[in-house]
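Re: the 468-residue chain
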Amino acid sequence: MSDRENITDTLDARFFAPLRRPRTRRVGVELELPVWNRTPGAATDFAAVHAVTDEFLSRFPFSDTALDDTGALYRARDPATGDELSFDCSFNTLELSFGPDESILETRKRFLAYYPALQEAFSRRGHALTGMGINPRWRENRPEPIGNGRYRMLLHHLKSYSKYGGSPRFHDHPDFGLFSCASQTQIDADEHSVIPAINAFNALEPFKAVLFANSPFGDGKFLCGRDSLWSQSLHGLNPHNCGLYGVLLRSLEDLAGYLASTSIYCVERGERYVNFAPVPLRDYLTLGTVVGEYWDAAAGLHRKCLITPSPADVAWLRPFKFEDITQRGTIEFRSVCEQPARDAFAPAAFHAGLAENVAALGELLESDSVLYGHGYGTSELRSLLTHRDWPSFVDRKALSVQLQRILDLAEDGLEKRGFGEAFLLKPLRRRADALSNPALEQIRRLERGETIEAVATDYGALEGGNDA
């Protein structure tokens, strides 16, 4: 068998075989919520986090637990619903991952049970959850990964960026995964719908930046810091591994070729996670051996080792595209910052509604002249629209109208789904009218003299407020 056939078969088994079944309308939601200490200047107290976790597990039927190397629980699952409470990269970020439901409202109902219980438990310990894309205590918090093989390997890998050239190619925040937070939606797909959906949603990304930016970072001019934190990290050494697709996909074969061009940087051998210099998958599988590193817990240091690439290693391929094809037969949408808690399910409704109207969305964007047609490609437009100041060609009134047209398609799609979910789009309607988003509102409030604590408290509330 040729190397090309080998890659095609392994990619097919992992990514495409799950698409060969009828598409359902199931939606999966993952919310990464910053944990912050309400005392100004104080870091998250991990003891408080562990106490809240224990209290949550005493109240809800989450079992199937996982412990880190210190014995601290970092993941628990409800076997009946598939919901998980976990900590993403560090104990500074609590993640709620929900088992897929046909109705987003069923998922939201469980969130409205979990979230207040967690918030009340954190409050008694001087902490809180919030709906922000950057942890408000990111400077103060302990930059420590969860003590297990995966997260220790990941941070070690990202910290090795200096081996590949210096600034401005890479930023100096390799621990960004410990403080940046996303709202991720997974939509069921099949082999017929996946390519049109990826293309349409890829073209939509500049418009999504206007609606969902919520991670101001740096000098206050950049509203979606998560974009550059990913792309200018070691994950972005190969630009095919994160962000937008720079090509129009025509077929599953095109997508397979794109996946083969993304880099693999870690595998598991026995109980060891091994990381190595990122190398495109198609090249990796032709290598005889690869020099990697693993954590020797007994010695307390990283050691070098040799591994032999195997087609089975495709299981460790980790692209982080804004529109990611997964091994579960879904498209995962990764570009949205975590949203204020009261608007937490607006992104899921937005994506689920538009997934019902992919053809119409594609046609709308193909004929767009509000953002497209001014000399900029999709990636450039996404970058421009994540800044506070937009270029002069952007007609603000026309952009507002176009955003409302996009939301009309989303609302129509939600009506087709028939679960009464359209009201979840209301905050996005306000944002489209005002051409505002949570990041811009946060910056304006801080400029008016409000504290970051006041904004974080508001963005963590389930009622009140108006981020537009």
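Residues 263-316 form one domain.
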